Amino acid sequence: MSENAQFKVEIIEHVAWLTLNRPEKRNTMGTVFFKELSEHLENFDQDASVRVVVIKAEGKSFTAGTDLEEAGSLLSGQAADQRETTRRNIMQLQEGLTKIERCGKPVIAAVHSHCIGGGIDLISACDIRLATTDAVFSIRETPMGIIADLGTLQRLPFIIGHGWFRELALTGRNFSAQEALQMGLITRICEDREALYAEARKLADQVAACPPLTVQGTKQVILYSRDNGVDAGLQYVAQKNAAALPSEDVVEAVTAFMEKRKPVFKGK
Questions:
Q1: Residue 268 lies in a domain
Q2: What is the distance between the alpha carbons of residues 140 and 245, in angstroms, rounded to a whole number?
Q3: Which domain holds residue 227?
Q4: 63: which DSSP letter?
Q5: Which helix (H) or strand (E) holds 53?
Q6: Which end of the chain is more exposed for a tag (fewer CB within 10 A), N or C?
Q7: Does some domain include residue 263?
């Protein structure tokens, strides 16, 4: 791992822990961050031993959002060709977070303290979100005169509904972990970071204990149905199950149930 790496990676059994590793900058997100994020997610996607990914962070904050110093230079262009470069740069950053959503392995976000601006974009692309009691969230782009452009406006309404979403997007106000739980952005609140990571591990283990191809297929169907509607989603899942069944893992699940033992899934 490079001394300047934006992340630390640790794979324990079937769980990949991806740790934001820029604590001196409050884990702000710049171009290198998004590039490394894409690379790590691609590696996890291709690694059959990885069944779940947990994203957490070092330091005082989960993330303070986009690196404003770097963003200032990206947004400074006025000429038409410079504006086109800005558009392309934004789309490249978007792709980094979309890799989280497209990753075949479920991704859990374990948030502590500040999760601001681009941090909301990041966790909105995750499948499950947990937070500590001291977590503070904000769609901070709005008060800064920027339209949030890395996925929050597209993904968050599907997670918390338009009522809460529009209030938060249009005001950019801070909201607490308790509010985040109430609206469904997070599913659990933990007392401190030790409890947070223990809970993340518990959930990750529960996911990893299920047949991996089934978990991955379920995530694919969820996203497809969200983007294409109920009827198309029903046809898609029928096609996937027709192609996948029976599998070795299904046979193992039934056999283990009949023999009253814990199943051992191989992703086949």
A1: no
A2: 46
A3: 212-258
A4: B
A5: strand 52-57
A6: N
A7: no
Token pair recorded at residue 261: 């033992």
Q: In tens digits, what is the pLDDT along the chain, a chain of 268 residues?
A: 455 689 999 999 999 999 999 999 999 999 999 999 999 999 999 999 999 999 999 999 999 998 887 766 655 555 667 788 888 888 999 999 999 999 999 999 999 999 999 999 999 999 999 999 999 999 999 999 999 999 999 999 999 999 999 999 999 999 999 999 999 999 999 999 999 999 999 999 999 999 999 999 999 999 999 999 999 999 999 999 888 777 877 777 777 777 777 877 877 7
The tally of domains found in the chain comes to 2
Residue 185 domain-assigned?
Answer: yes
What is the SS3 assignment for 100? helix
157: its two tokens: 């309404």
The CATH number given to whatever domain includes residue 181 is: 3.90.226.10
> d(Cα 187, Cα 145) in Å, to the nearest integer?
30
Length of the chain: 268
Q: Are residues 34 and 129 in the same domain?
A: yes
Distance in angstroms (rounded) separating the CA atoms of residues 85 and 78? 10
Q: Is 114:62 a contact under the CB 8 Å cutoff? A: yes
Instruction: Report the C-alpha gap between 205 and 208 in whole angstroms.
Output: 5
Q: Tell me how far apart the alpha carbons of residues 233 and 224 are, in angstroms, rounded to a whole number.
A: 6
**267 belongs to a structural domain:** no
Q: Are residues 17 and 84 in the same domain?
A: yes
Whether 6 and 45 have beta carbons less than 8 Å apart is answered as no
Q: How do strand 136-138 and strand 7-12 relate by DSSP bridges?
A: unpaired
In angstroms, the CA 174 to CA 176 distance is 7
Are 148 and 234 found together in one domain? Answer: no
Computed from CA positions of residues 174, 178, 181, 186, in that sequence, does the dihedral angle turn out positive or negative?
Answer: positive
